[in-house]
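User: I'm writing a tutorial on reading structure tokens. Could you give me a worked example: one chain, its sequence, then its tokens, then a sentence or two explaining what the tokens reveal?
Assistant: Sure. Here is the example chain.
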Amino acid sequence: MFTAACETTVKASTDPSIFILGTRSVAVPLRQRVESALQSGQGNVCLDFAGVSVTQAYMDELLGVLLLRYGPTLLERVAFKMCSEDVRAVIQFVASARIRDYKELTEKAVIS
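And here are its predicted structure tokens:
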């Protein structure tokens, strides 16, 4: 998740005056860019979080939504770089929660 080779790198923020990414609405365009890159066969995608912090809400909209759509194998194609320890902690928290949710949803679908 933090060390995969990447063919495409996407900066979380290109504006040097922004140092915290906090709302769900700010995460949507980045999530759409990542999803587009993955669907168009651009290889593995790295998300570069150099110089920014994130909230749980932001990361849930970015990563959580993708994990619920594609499942845990998404993390084989998406990596995170230049993350502070705080950003890493938020990523790990959101990933573990949404992977658990994905597994519960797929188990319910199999039972139904």
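What the tokens reveal: The chain has three helices and five strands. The first helix runs from residue 24 to 39.
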